[in-house]
Specification:
Layout lengths: L8 H7 L16 H5 L6
Length: 42
C-alpha cells in the first residue's frame, strides 16, 4: 500500500486518476431559473 497501489488514495493521486477512494469535487451548475432571470442583463 503506497504510491504504486492503484486502490489506495495515495496511488490515485500519484497516477492522476479518480475512483471510490478519491472522489472528484462536484462543480455547482447554475439552475435554469438563474440562467433565465430577467434581473441580469448586460
Amino acid at each position: 500500500m503506497g504510491k504504486g497501489d492503484k486502490k489506495s488514495k495515495r496511488g490515485k493521486i500519484i497516477n492522476g486518476t479518480y475512483g471510490t477512494r478519491r472522489k472528484r469535487k462536484i462543480k455547482k451548475r447554475p439552475t435554469v431559473e438563474e440562467k433565465i432571470s430577467p434581473g441580469k442583463k448586460k
